[in-house]
Design brief:
mainly beta
Length: about 80
């Protein structure tokens, strides 16, 4: 089941990886969206690139960080 995004993800947004194979390894790490979203060349699903992350990641696997809720609440 895909997570619904309240508003589209844009370059410059802060996100966390919430689903997929890298979610546990990078739990709690805040990433900055570098590019996207654009269709993935292999599967056609919307994906973004993250600064410091090797490769692309589907937007269904990330969640935007709200400025009023993170990181103070989770640190």
């Amino acid at each position: 089941m895909a997570m619904a995004q309240e508003t589209p993800i844009h370059a410059g947004d802060q996100v966390v990886i919430t689903h997929g194979p890298d979610a546990k390894q990078h739990r709690g790490k805040v990433w900055v969206v570098a590019t996207g979203p654009e269709p993935c060349p292999c599967c056609g699903k919307l994906a973004v690139t993250l600064k410091g992350y090797d490769g692309i990641i589907g937007i269904d696997n990330i969640a935007r960080v709200r400025d009023d809720d993170y990181p103070a609440r989770y640190q």
